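A quick aside before the break. I want you to see a complete sequence-to-structure record at least once, exactly as it would be stored in a machine-readable document. Don't worry about memorizing anything.
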Amino acid sequence: MTMTNEEAIAEIWKLFREERERAEKDRERAEKDRERAEKEWEREKEAREHSSAELDRRFRETDQEIKNIGKKIRSLAGSFDYQWGKLIEKLVKSGVVKLFQYRGIDIKFVTERMKRTKGGGTMEIDLLLLNTTEIVAIEVKSTLKVSDVDNFLEDLVEFKDFFPEYKGYHLYGGVVGLEIAEGSDRYAYKQGLFVLGVQGKKMAEMRNDLKFKPKDFSQELHEVNLA
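That is the input. The structure line, written in tokens, reads:
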């Protein structure tokens, strides 16, 4: 039986909470392991003044263990954000076309995870919406922060260097967050970005009011090139 949008959203929020709780428990265990390793490291450090070759070896092993645990914690956080970012992309993609058509941008195509490499640098766009003259590049985060917005603004400045086939297109930007932190939605709005979310019966919703005028980043690039 096919779920309604409301049921799908409820199920996703349930999975999100369960996954976050699991990730938090994993991180807590990893933090405790790190604390234990750090205490061991301190004991070894004190004993090192009277060390033998064996104590020196144990000291190095403990130091390496701390580094490995730190990597594990970073990996857990990164994996959680990546998996939920992909899920949100699917949710937003299902309803995003009508939202932009309502705002006068007649989207014809939606592409996920466009990735390019140039000169040793890499750019990946989570969702790319376009027609024959306009592009909306969208950044998707499970938790949207101000730093995410700033990083994305930098990507928009370099977008057509990585995707030269879209030179001549009007370029707009948008951000999506299942959760919003640090007032990043208001900050993104002020930077001229569309702000989308997932809430209620809708798979995606536009959080910009009707007074909002999106920034055309292609115009900014043109002005920079003329300077």
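Two observations worth writing down. Helices lie at 5-47, 53-102, 146-162, 184-190, 217-226. Strands lie at 109-118, 121-130, 134-144, 170-180, 194-199, 202-206. We'll return to this after the break.
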